[in-house]
Amino acid sequence: MDADLAQILDGIGPRLRALRHDRGLTLEALAEETGISLSTLSRLESGKRRPTLDLLIPLARAHRVALDQLVAAPATGDPRVHLRPHRGRHGSVLVPLTQYPGRVQVFKQVLSRREPKLVTHAGYEWLYVLAGELRLVLGAREYTLRPGEIAEFDTAEPHWFGPAGDQAVEILHLFGPQGDQAVVRTGSAAAT
């Protein structure tokens, strides 16, 4: 085995342990969630057992990460992301910027005029206006956001968003599972 491959394989155990700790899971809870025995999980995390695909795939699903995040293989080929815009009705465009299911999803959207229709669903949304004006309806409240302004809300609350007028609005749209929220940092805290 070459040194690069050995280094990649040796890094998987500590990465698995860190993911489990970040989620606040015990080995027992992870074993129950994945169907992988407690002893196998322990040996994987300590590096005493080499990982195989039949072990890594259920672990990636349980931790809601892509398989390449567990392996941390070196990047190969073209590093550019080839985006595939989805065109909607009335000229709206949705461009997915992330590709990890089960995690926070990021989209660039151009929203054209449409009729407001309040919806609810599980999750949490974060909207950042790039260009134009965004009309946001949350229950009985209504807001107009301009470029550089941000809104975030729990999607269990009835909501709708779209252009504030006749012109399209361009936004960054983050959508996460229930409990996941975006964190905005605008600078360092002042020293006291």
What does this 3D model show about the protein?
28% of the residues lie in helices and 26% in strands. The N and C termini lie far apart (54 Å). The strands form two sheets. It has a six-stranded antiparallel sheet with strand order 1-2-3-9-4-7, with no helix packed on it. Strands 6-5-8 form a three-stranded antiparallel sheet, with no helix packed on it. The longest helix is centred in the first third of the chain and has 20 residues, at 3-22. Helix 1 crosses helix 3. With 192 residues, the chain is of the alpha+beta class. It contains five helices and nine strands. The protein has helices at residues 3-22, 27-34, 38-46, 53-63, 67-71, and strands at 86-87, 93-96, 105-111, 124-131, 134-138, 141-145, 150-154, 159-163, 169-176.
Give a topology summary.
Blueprint (H helix, E strand, L loop, with lengths): L2 H20 L4 H8 L3 H9 L6 H11 L3 H5 L14 E2 L5 E4 L8 E7 L12 E8 L2 E5 L2 E5 L4 E5 L4 E5 L5 E8 L16
Specify the overall morphology: elongated
Structural class of the helix and strand makeup?
Answer: alpha+beta
Output mean pLDDT: 83
The helix/strand order is HHHHHEEEEEEEEE
What is the radius of gyration?
21 Å
List segments where confidence is low: pLDDT < 50 over at least 5 consecutive residues: 183-192
User: What is the CA–CA distance across the termini?
Assistant: 54 Å
Strand order of the largest sheet: 1-2-3-9-4-7
- Number-wise, the strands total 9
Bin the strand percentage.
25-35%
Largest sheet: 6 strands, antiparallel
Helix percentage range:
25-40%
SS summary, helix count: 5
